[in-house]
Amino acid sequence: MKKIVCVLLALCLCVSLFAACGESESDALTVEAVKEKGTLVIATSPDFPPFEELTAEGTVEGIEIDILNLICDELGVELVIEQMDFDSVLPGVQAGKYDVGVSGISVTEKRMKNTLFTDAYCLAAQAIVVTADSPIASKADLEGKTVSVQTGTTAESFCMEEGYEVSSFAANADAQSALITGKVDAWVIDDLTAAEMVAAYNEENPG
Q1: SS3 109
Q2: Cα three-residue angle 105-110-112, rounded to 5 degrees
Q3: pLDDT digit of tens for each residue in the chain (207 aa)?
Q4: Alpha helices of the chain — where are they, by DSSP H?
């Protein structure tokens, strides 16, 4: 199998720990309400390491899960994790099905119109992932090329705004597979997750 590599794009966005429904602080879920019901129910798409990912045993782990476990321990409540595709996370929270959405979610003006975010805790840039023998070395090289992205992400919005030919997939693993099998020319994804997934793939496929 061919190795894959990352090429960094310039677009940088802030990443929030979690998102909740509402347009103002008065609509926000309160600590008292969480304590009263005894649970914090989160919606997540666990295919976005190092933020969230599935273990071999089928449990969800990652930076944001560790932080939320600490918060729940402090509040004395149970953390309940509901798994779904990324494009279902924010709609589910906005519909009141879940308390918060947690999936390495970037803060954008569009999302802020009907979603409350925590303060950002890291910056994420978009990255281009290509096969090691690809001639693509920069954003300019994507013109006329087909790219894979995860549905509902800032990567999808960015690529559509740039006018690229976009193939969207519900799961990041499928977007990655499209690149590896030659169905697309490049895969666009947040840089931190790109680094994790590229390293894992190349370790499993050293040829």
Answers
A1: helix
A2: 65
A3: 678 888 876 556 667 777 776 544 545 578 898 999 999 999 999 999 999 999 999 999 999 999 999 999 999 999 999 999 999 999 999 998 999 999 999 988 889 888 888 888 888 889 999 999 999 999 999 999 999 999 999 999 999 999 999 999 999 999 999 999 999 999 999 999 999 999 999 999 886
A4: 31-37, 63-75, 86-94, 109-112, 154-162, 172-180, 191-204
Given the candidates 3.30.200.20, 3.40.190.10, 1.10.1200.120, 3.40.50.2300, the CATH classification of the domain at 18-118 is 3.40.190.10
Assess contact for 141 and 135: CB atoms under 8 A: yes
Contact between 153 and 25 (Cβ < 8 Å): no
Instruction: List the structure tokens of 127.
Output: 């990255």
C-alpha separations of 12 from 107, 122, 123, 190 in Å? 10, 10, 6, 9
Kindly report the pTM of this predicted structure.
0.86
- Which contiguous run of DSSP H or E holds residue 187? strand 186-190
Pairing of strands 186-190, 146-150: parallel
Rounded-to-integer distance, Cα 17 and Cα 103, Å: 8
